[in-house]
Amino acid sequence: MSIRDLIPWGRDNGNRGPTFYRDDQHNPVFSLHREVNRLFDDVFRSFDSLGSLPSFNAGWPKVEVSETAGDIKVTAEIPGIEEKDLEILLDDDVLTLRGEKRAESEDKERQFSERCYGRFERRIPLGYEVEQDKIEARFRNGVLTVVLPKSERAQSQVKRIAINH
Fold first, then answer.
1. 109: which residues sit within 8 A by CB, 6+ positions away?
2. Global pTM?
3. Cα–Cα distance between 65 and 51 in angstroms, integer?
4. pLDDT in tens, 44-94
5. 75 DSSP 8-state letter
């Protein structure tokens, strides 16, 4: 093998001169470079803001958080789980939803599944003090709804700011 074999352009292209390989479909090195970059981007994109390792069920269950002047309402979609396998905790103004989704059967013939099973934990920072003795939670048709009333102190700390023209 000579050094001329390593040059990334063709030597004999008729009368048109050398051909430079700048198109990914013709040059396998550029194609490999692009794919490796894409793989690294996918891996690092899956890291969450806390820097933990990526997991397949990160961000599950999906939640919706809404706020009014008097309370915070958290709704989570958790299909396929029973109420006894679900735990709701409030610690230091952080709501934690944790549980385990169990497989319904041991199907050894199954070749492909997009369903996820196993333990999950989702932490939701509230940003307000809540009245812990008045928290309500309902679990119906795979949807968990938690209503957290704000404390009087948290409600009084809200200040409306006027916009000057």
1. none
2. 0.56
3. 23
4. 665 544 444 444 445 678 899 998 888 999 999 988 888 898 999 998 889
5. E
